TrEMBL record:
Species annotation: Gordonia insulae
GO molecular function: identical protein binding; ornithine aminotransferase activity; pyridoxal phosphate binding
Keywords in alphabetical order: Amino-acid biosynthesis, Aminotransferase, Proline biosynthesis, Pyridoxal phosphate, Transferase
A Pfam family per the record: Aminotran_3
EC category: transferase
Source taxon at top rank: Bacteria
Zinc-finger keyword on record: no
NCBIfam families from the UniProt entry: DiMArgaseDdahMtb, Orn_aminotrans
EC numbers: 2.6.1.13
Pathway per the UniProt entry: Amino-acid biosynthesis; L-proline biosynthesis; L-glutamate 5-semialdehyde from L-ornithine: step 1/1
Example GO biological process: L-proline biosynthetic process
Protein name, as recorded: ornithine aminotransferase
Length: 682
């Protein structure tokens, strides 16, 4: 076949649109079976070369400003690298694939789990066979759907029903082009390139009617999967082995970018096969990529850009005000720009901010003395972030175990609780059971044993002569504000005392007034051996954290064994001391208790009206929403539309942690907005 020139005139300014992609590295890529004409198990495959080519493709996307999310490959699934087949993200819905061949069957579940964990749920599954974007290509508000070799024709109707988008069926007849994306490439919301001989005569007629100005590929370009391309509306990422198609695209005003993916072609896949576009409910991913192209995408923020804040309110760049019901995960307990804390910071800014611990400062000892008194302890180890405080407490516990308890060197063991969240450093994620935190970051630090949260019997069974500490959140925050059984913490305290084990309470989120007490453990009359503190200790001004314990614990540290350039700096000490003075007055704790009762009372009235359960203490609540009404992320987006900022956690759970300066009227208003959000779709 000869190439025809495009009927549409070259655009003077084609506009790219930033995209979000999922890709799976070919760590386990090989060809050991044949399920398409491209695969030949007798032809050697160079996995290292395939990885290098895949990395080059990813680098091209990122150089264009696109966001790439990596799906962990699974042993025994060599074709998982072809991520486009893993599912479809369209029409504000996510559909996981159901593969035609048993060799690829397990991929569907892995991709479904990844979609759900990434906030792209709820994930839909079809009854019929369909292989995701391999056979479903989105163009504008329409889906072009292939059939003939993999995806069943009847499944097209299922996808139309799930996405709410019209689906146009196209029949493939050449087995070399077993997926639609091997014979047709989407260039923008109106234009395509395709290879007519791959389609039945009826489907060729449909394509000619829908896209009279399409670019037509030559035999040679189609034979190297030149149409298996990815376009952002201007840049067309494609094989470097299709010169005629490259020239046609350039003549039409596009900017082709050639990539060598020849090693992966041995498995029957090209550029598009390795690339799944995410268009679904996680809308803020695309917004974040557009708004902050130079910021690493380790967060997925709501589409609100703060410009100023005061008290319990945030004002965005467009002047819209939002009631902050997240409070920076308790870091803003005392409100945004609390006047007393700001004044202390300004005063210290005019004096000295940093000396490092190489010298003393006149602010450090008064701060540590006040904080130790607040905690009923002797000593303070000042640090910066909450994760640093937890890491420091683990180091101290191990040193105490060796020096005081007499545990043989290298055998110290720390018991943790399942569902924990103590930070995201390597040692901390080593004992996390959150796959998002762990996946792709091994090898992990040994020395930790996890038992179910709230199960004192399991903790007792896990303790032995090498156990040096128990690390536990009095109330689990990231898991959805999980309050333990009333006998849990007292029993943990008792067994730690009886077995000479340190009890470490991570009060980084739950402490410093959040739950109506200075520390959450006080609700159960428990005093730990060690507190880890952070977040609110910095007053919403700067990071300040601390490990607080008695001399017989913190005294195991000697000069040179632990330190921090910024830990305990004069500015941090001045701010932290002011926070401690405010808490010593007791009014903040009382306010959190009183307003918390009002908030929980209002939230409990929503049970049976879109809310399944409410948990928490003080001004801290975990809310389980009926999944039929949307994920936690979707509800948070609806709340943001109504002027309330909250944060989702796993599944359909969201959290509220407003600053303690919030008023009764503001609490009532926030609850009313939640009720309205549960009745409506965004």
């Amino acid at each position: 076949m000869t190439m025809t020139s495009p009927a549409f005139a070259p655009a003077t300014a084609r506009m790219p649109r930033l995209r979000t992609y999922a890709m799976t590295p070919p760590i386990h890529y090989t060809v050991t079976y044949a399920i398409n004409p491209w695969m030949d198990p007798s032809t050697p495959v160079d996995t290292d070369r395939a990885i290098a080519q895949w990395l080059a493709l990813r680098e091209v996307y990122e150089s264009l400003g696109h966001s790439v999310h990596v799906v962990d490959p699974q042993p025994g699934l060599p074709d998982m690298v072809y991520a486009a087949n893993g599912g479809l993200s369209a029409g504000n819905r996510t559909i996981a694939a159901r593969f035609a061949f048993p060799e690829r069957g397990p991929e569907g579940d892995h991709y479904a789990d990844w979609f759900e964990a990434g906030g792209l749920g709820p994930v839909h599954r079809t009854d019929g066979i369909q292989e995701g974007e391999g056979d479903f290509l989105v163009i504008g508000d329409r889906i072009l759907a292939g059939t003939g070799f993999r995806t069943h024709r009847d499944t097209h109707a299922e996808v139309a029903a799930i996405t709410g988008m019209p689906v146009t069926t196209l029949e493939l007849i050449d087995p070399r082009f077993y997926h639609l994306d091997t014979a047709l490439g989407i260039l923008d919301d109106e234009h395509i390139a395709y290879y007519p001989p791959a389609f039945s005569s009826a489907s060729r007629s449909v394509l000619a009617d829908l896209f009279p100005d399409a670019i037509i590929a030559t035999d040679a370009d189609a034979a190297v999967l030149g149409l298996n391309l990815v376009s952002d509306g201007l840049h067309v990422v494609m094989t470097d082995a299709a010169p005629d198609l490259t020239a046609a695209l350039r003549a039409a005003g596009y900017e082709p970018i050639g990539v060598d993916l020849s090693e992966l072609l041995k498995g029957g896949g090209g550029i598009k096969c390795c690339t799944l576009e995410l268009r679904s409910t996680d809308k803020e991913v695309a917004v974040h990529t557009l708004a902050e192209p130079h910021v690493a995408h380790n967060y997925s923020p709501l589409p609100v850009t703060a410009a100023s804040a005061e008290g319990a309110w945030i004002t965005d760049v467009d002047g819209r005000r939002f009631l902050d019901c997240l409070g920076a995960y308790s870091a803003v307990n005392f409100g945004h720009r609390n006047p007393r804390i700001v004044a202390a910071a300004i005063e210290q800014l005019d004096r000295v901010t940093l000396t490092s611990r190489a010298f003393r400062s006149d602010r450090l000892e008064p701060f540590c003395a006040a904080l130790a008194a607040l905690c009923g302890k002797d000593m303070v180890l000042p640090m910066n972030t909450g994760a640093e405080a937890v890491e420091s407490a683990i180091k101290v516990a191990r040193k105490w175990g060796y020096d005081v308890k007499g545990v043989p060197d290298g055998l110290a063991k720390v018991i943790v609780a399942g569902g924990n969240f103590h930070g995201r450093t390597i040692s901390i994620i080593s004992f996390s059971d959150d796959p998002d935190a762990r996946s792709g970051f091994g090898p992990f630090t040994p020395g930790f044993v996890s038992v179910p949260y709230g199960d004192a019997e399991a903790m007792a069974a896990a303790m032995d002569e090498h156990t040096v500490a128990v690390l536990v959140e009095p109330i689990q925050g990231e898991s959805g504000i999980i309050v333990p059984p009333d006998d849990y913490l007292p029993r943990v305290r008792t067994m730690c005392t009886e077995r000479n084990v340190l009890m470490i309470a991570d009060e980084i989120q739950s402490g410093l007034g959040r739950t109506g007490m200075t520390f959450a453990v006080q609700h159960w009359g428990v005093e730990p051996d060690v507190y880890t503190l952070g977040k609110a200790l910095g007053g919403g001004i700067l990071p300040v954290s601390a490990v607080v314990a008695n001399h017989d614990v913190l005294g195991v540290l000697h000069p040179g064994e632990h330190g921090s350039t910024f830990g305990g700096n004069p500015l941090a000490a001045a701010v932290g001391h002011t926070v401690v003075e405010m808490l010593a007055e007791g009014t903040w704790q009382a306010r959190a208790a009183e307003l918390g009762n009002r908030m929980h009372s209002g939230l409990r009235e929503l049970i049976g009206h879109g809310v399944i359960a409410v948990r928490g203490l003080g001004l801290w609540a975990g809310i389980d929403v009926d999944p039929a009404l949307g994920s936690g992320k979707e509800v948070c987006l609806r709340l943001a539309d109504r002027g309330v900022l909250a944060k989702d956690t796993h599944g359909s759970t969201l959290r509220l942690a407003p600053p303690l300066v919030i008023t009764e009227e503001e609490i009532d208003w926030a609850v009313a907005q939640l009720a309205d959000a549960l009745r409506s779709e965004r």
